[in-house]
Amino acid sequence: MSYKRVIRFIVFIALCVQAKQMVAQNANTRPNIIYIMSDDHAYQAISAYGYGLNHTPNIDKLAEQGVLFNRAFVTNSICGPSRAVMLTGKHSHVNGFKDNHSTFDGSQQTVAKLLHNNGYTTAVIGKWHLISDPQGFDYWNVVPGQGEYYNPDFIENGVKKRVPGYITNITTDFAINWLDSRDKSKPFFLMYQQKAPHRNWMPEEKYYHLFDSTQFPVPANYFDDYQTRTKAAHEQAMEVARDMHDAYDLKLAFDLPKDQQKGLAGNWQGIYNRLTPEEKKKWEAAYGPSIEAFKKANLSGKELAIWKYQRYMRDYLRCVQSVDDNVGRLMEYLKANGLDKNTIIIYTSDQGFYLGEHGWFDKRFMYEESFRTPLIVKWPGVTNKKIASNSMVQNLDFAETILDMAGLPIPADMQGKSFVPVLKGKKKGDVHEALYYHFYENQEHKVAKHIGVRTDRYKLIYFYENNEWEMYDLKKDKSEMKNVYNDPSYSKVKSMMQKKLMELKKQYNDPVPVVTPQI
Ligand code: SGN
Ligand code: CA
């Protein structure tokens, strides 16, 4: 080798070493980010929020060293749309995914792609629900559609296979495996997304008897008659007492006769068939006695409605318990591998959920229980003690906040706002002074399409298919039982809120089809 070539070779090696050191340094200084999103996890079912229904010690531990948001909301309370908003930082009408029947245009800009293109190694594991294949991830292992609780299918980087076990545990196994085998020279971004506690709430074997003897307090408005509310609240199909299916939701049957296997009964048989004969035996031993007791009691009217509520709550909260256990497992892994000090944890859900309030299960409406979502952010070195924040934030802000945490520039076309200043304790007030909402999917559960605006104190909802309005004074009426839209003493508030709604609609450029002459 000539002298010059030797020098060139030495310089090349020195540059390589330097580059490697820089990458390693980056991996050490730029935070890792784990975005934990459970499906349909109501804030009422996280003990840190103080509702007293259950105990979630591992999620609560995040809140002990982080910021617990009391006023985090979504823009469109349903699964796929919420996920698309989170990924893009754009409202549904901009990212194109308006309802669960849409297909995500994966070619567009997402927070995952931006992190990936700027030195992060990225993965998404668990529920995805955006139809098209994930893009912007070094590794993906997601369930098709909603996923199944027992022995679910997973699609790993495009290859589908059935995986034995319980979905909440499997999702964590995959997350830990990826963390173990990831490219350790880079910081990581992991989207760890549980299917639980989504319908039809099938618990893990070890929790079959949890809450067996617990009587949950029935919400004060469980027997809501929707007086003062518009047609939309009356016409929904999401009442625990009326719309839950005996086999599928309430687990009042095992194998069904062939001629009954239609609709939700068919769904039940399909998922029940995923259990092995051994698993079916254990399921039947656990649920059999309560089915017998139920038949014997021969309940009707209010008693039957309350029995259904208790049945729903027990299974829902049992599923939550496995979610909490698995958050604990993941945190233990981080600690054991020295990752806990430089990993930000975000815990949230794709929306809120009704646990019997207004008599309902499911979500969709802009009323608080489904519009709001749990949100806890733990950022080691930044959020060191428990802080409860009342600042109004929205899932529209997640993408920008994550980029901000990673020290990356925020694209001008994103529509949210970073709430890093709240996490750093530099901002106490609202990130948004008013929040915009738009729900599109008037199909299953029959919730009319609507837009709306929420401020600190008031909420205005416009069901534009019905041309009907509702307005709530949240200070006086936390449960949204009294529609004050036509109350003359609120006429000024009404004009102020309608003005805000139109301003936000314009700001976000939402072409809502109908606007009445009233505005
Ligand atoms: C399924 C459920 C609905 C639920 C939607 C949306 N029905 O269709 O009860 O509202 O998902 O949920 S089921 O018979 O299939 O269980 S979401 O979380 O995906 O938006
Ligand atoms: Ca959901």
From TrEMBL:
<dbReference type="Pfam" id="PF16347">
    <property type="entry name" value="SGSH_C"/>
</dbReference>
<dbReference type="GO" id="GO:0016787">
    <property type="term" value="F:hydrolase activity"/>
</dbReference>
<keyword id="KW-0732">Signal</keyword>
<comment type="similarity">
    <text>Belongs to the sulfatase family.</text>
</comment>
<keyword id="KW-0378">Hydrolase</keyword>
<feature type="signal peptide">
    <location>
        <begin position="1"/>
        <end position="19"/>
    </location>
</feature>
<dbReference type="InterPro" id="IPR002591">
    <property type="entry name" value="Phosphodiest/P_Trfase"/>
</dbReference>
<dbReference type="InterPro" id="IPR032506">
    <property type="entry name" value="SGSH_C"/>
</dbReference>
<dbReference type="InterPro" id="IPR024607">
    <property type="entry name" value="Sulfatase_CS"/>
</dbReference>
<protein>
    <submittedName>
        <fullName>Sulfatase</fullName>
    </submittedName>
</protein>
<dbReference type="Pfam" id="PF01663">
    <property type="entry name" value="Phosphodiest"/>
</dbReference>
<feature type="domain" description="N-sulphoglucosamine sulphohydrolase C-terminal">
    <location>
        <begin position="356"/>
        <end position="507"/>
    </location>
</feature>
<dbReference type="InterPro" id="IPR017850">
    <property type="entry name" value="Alkaline_phosphatase_core_sf"/>
</dbReference>
